[in-house]
Amino acid sequence: MRNIEKLKLKILYNFFFFYPVAINLSYLWNFGIYALFCLIFQIITGIFLVMYYISDSVSAFLSVEYIMREVSYGWILRYLHANGASFFFLVIYVHIFRNLYFGSYLYPRIYIWYSGLIIYILLVITAFLGYVLPWGQMSYWAATVITNLVSVVPYIGDSLVIWLWGSYSVDNVTLHRFFSLHYFFPFIIVLCVVLHLIFLHEIGSSNPIGIEFKYIDYILFYPYYIYKDLFGLSIFFILYGFIVFFFPNYLGHYDNYIMANILVTPTHIVPEWYFLFFYAILRAIPDKMSGVIFMLMGIGVLFVIPFIIEFEVSSLLFRCLLRYFFWYLVFICLLLGWVGSKPAEEPYIFISQLCVVNYYIYFLVVLPYFSKIEDYFWINIYRK
């Protein structure tokens, strides 16, 4: 039995440390490690916050204030958790765009890409559930608006909304359910992260020049990239600590420091900054059902692109046209986030509509067709 246990430990040790990676990875490949540490921090701080939080519509807001003012170091736990969500999404977005730029979503890494997208979807759901828990004004009305989107389901939409609420409005039962799910989903995310790592270690990491692993020089992850990751993590935690200690409320909304009032609607309901992209797409479409469909397809299109794109050279480092279109996509996404923070009026609605059209054109037109054009020139002109 001892030999079996030693063998298991050896396999785990080799899995995490002694596996080969490409020799030319940049610091952009560190963001997966940052995301893993963000997840660990969120779970740890969340467990301590649960010890004092009360999932009751009357006491939830007051329990958060109690954590902030009465619990020893409760303020730092809450600020670490609240700002940790923002840093988590920031890291995830950089991670996704890095994969889009270097073509890491293509064969043979499709399963890595899909498992990562599933983690992102679970993270979005978990963050939304957690945003409701403080039971502030913005939390309550954001929950009311978002859960009402389920009503677009034909025939049974209204019944689904009532079933989701557990009542005829967002109330005490809703808060209980959201709290339970918010506590449960991180452990599902951990399971998906393990699968993500298994797929990654089975196939191998991509690299900046897009050459398959077997055709490039490699080194062991330990000790070379361990030290690189530790250096990157030290910079990351310095920035994290700077926000937590000096600007802890900068990424939040001031209305959320007011207790939820079902009789008073905020003048401008906005989600957290990491949801503004989807919120802008939702508001850009006048029809409610079409808006929800387009919003969901904002993620759905990422599941489709591995099947509609065939690259001779996957990395955009060697693609003159698509490289510039990629940065245009980044600009479009940032512009959508900015528009989502503005009131639902002109000219912001028109700008968001233009951005939505350009967003889908990039994935459904520019990527598949311009990649073929560049491949043609690459094969028939450059190589000659």
In words, what does this structure look like?
- By secondary structure, this protein is mainly α.
- The chain folds into two domains: 2-269, Cytochrome Bc1 Complex, Chain C, CATH 1.20.810.10; 270-384, Helix Hairpins (Orthogonal Bundle), CATH 1.10.287.
- 68% of the residues lie in helices and 2% in strands.
- The protein has helices spanning 2-16, 31-50, 60-69, 74-102, 110-132, 137-147, 157-165, 172-203, 221-246, 276-284, 288-308, 320-340, 348-382, and strands at 20-22, 218-220.
- The chain has a two-stranded antiparallel ribbon.
- Helix 2 (31-50) runs antiparallel to helix 8 (172-203) and helix 3 crosses helix 4 (74-102).
- The relative contact order is 0.12.
Set out the fold topology.
Blueprint: H1 2-16, E1 20-22, H2 31-50, H3 60-69, H4 74-102, H5 110-132, H6 137-147, H7 157-165, H8 172-203, E2 218-220, H9 221-246, H10 276-284, H11 288-308, H12 320-340, H13 348-382
Antiparallel strand pairs: 1-2
Helix pairs in contact: 2-4, 2-8, 3-4, 4-5, 4-9, 5-6, 5-8, 5-11, 10-11, 10-12, 10-13, 11-13, 12-13
> Which CATH class of the largest domain is shown?
Mainly Alpha
Number of helices: 13
CATH architecture of the largest domain: Up-down Bundle
End-to-end distance, in Å? 63 Å
Multimeric state: single chain
How large a portion of the residues is in β-strands, by DSSP E? under 5%
